[in-house]
Amino acid sequence: MSRPIFSLDNFRHRVAHLEALPQFAVLGVISGLLTGLVILVLRQAIEIPLRYWLPDNDPENFESLSTLSRFLAPLLGTLLIGLIFTYINRDARDVGVPHVLERLNYHQGHFSLKNAASQFLAAAITVVSGQSAGREGPAIHLGAAFSSLFGRRLGLPNNSIRVLVGCGAAAAISASFNTPIAGVIFAMEVIIMEYTIAGFTPVILASVSAAVLTRLVYGADPAFEVPSLSINSLWDIPFTILLGLIFGALSALFI
Predict the structure, then answer these.
(1) Are 83 and 71 in contact (CB under 8 A)?
(2) Please, how many CA atoms are within 13 Å of residue 75, restricted to the half-sphere of its CB?
(3) How buried is residue 45: exposed, middle or buried, by Cβ count under 10 Å (0-12/13-18/19+)?
(4) Does 159 score more than 90 pLDDT?
(5) Element (H, E) at 4
(6) Which of 45, 179, 201, 211 has a beta carbon 3.0–4.6 Å from 124's, enabling a disulfide?
């Protein structure tokens, strides 16, 4: 009797060991595509209402609204979010990057679908109503959550779930802003907080996969246009170093 080409039990056994690089690479690509799809849905859930609501069908044209509309929109959005979070379970109210870190550090990277759903709704309402928040935090939460849920659905071991959380976070940044390198750096520095080949490779593949999927829909242009910067004099370098030290100290004090 011939052996099956693919065995899920054998796959689970392989990814339980850190040297299972080919298996982690496959997981990274799937995580990137899954996260990229989720972020595309989130972006459309934000941009479609804004195109119909804002003048000139421009999803960033809040300035053209009347003063009354700009005043009432955030209030109504806050009221709606408050009502949603009042009537959902307390366990489903935790959202954002702090929730991702908490689940990764204390719950082996396991996430709840209810938290992801509440994050999706809250993010869409928040951005559409013009409040001072972006989609990067919600995107990271959604990418990490759906990648984790995918791994749990396959019954993968905890070490694989942790890698998938990092893959989802990297892919979320990449898909949100068309910045695959930034996604990798963020995931490795903030989420996983360690550099290993078994973790680095799938995170890179996830970030690139999400970027490819996003570029098929939105094109290759980055989300933000960064002006070209140049050093006019060597005397600029000491001031740049000084600014780095100052803001690094301020960041440490803030934390």
Answers:
(1) no
(2) 5
(3) middle
(4) no
(5) none
(6) 45
